Here is the input.
Amino acid sequence: MSNKAKIREEAKKLNPIDDLMFRTMAEDKDFCEEILRVILSDPALTVLESTPQYAGTNPQGRSVILDAKCVLGDGRKTDIEVQKANDTDHQRRVRYNGAILTTNLTDPGVKFENVPNVCVVFISRFDIFNGNRSLYHVDRVIRETGKIVDNGFEEVYVNAKVKDGSEVSELMEVFVDDAAYNSKFPVTSGSKRRYKETEKGQRRMCEIMEKINEETRLRINQLNAILIKSKRYDDLERTTYDTDYQEQLLIELVPEKA
Here is the structure.
């Protein structure tokens, strides 16, 4: 089987839970608006702007690439993350991503009362809290009184593992099941069908995959050259088995072209 044929077969297996398809679908703010209306239980919610693969930089530490950053009509900034594998401490990932998004959106000298409200929506194939719920809201609670307090940071976790008959669970079925489409979510279902079933959509996904594969190969070669030139041999060795660390160094040392 040729490389192009292999890429086409891989593209057919993609669903919205996969980074590549999600980020492509998130180019359409109407898609982000539809899923956030369901997840945040707000049918009047509006998305003014959506930015897939938003680069959150940290000059003094780890930088990140967010799957999608959205600006909501009420001023909130939302980071939507999709994750298939339960392979790390995702709660700390959410905490860190939220902090990076906050600092990247806050100008120096801004008064604390004007620091933007940030919401991280974490969509996963697995039940992160094992509570048999498809939707979790994590609040800040005063231990002594039980009172919920708000500092402008919101965490919402959604998973596709639990089938509880809720609207969120129905949406997640569209995210993970190859054959699942639902008229309740016309934008999500229509976008998924376009990229999975139409020739034009399939061609677009294949082109993106080919471009990403080539760009990634070139950037990794550049990164390796930088590490060798800087005699950072321990870092070079670590990138061979730690993909998260490799991604961090790629963001910091070999920025993607705009």
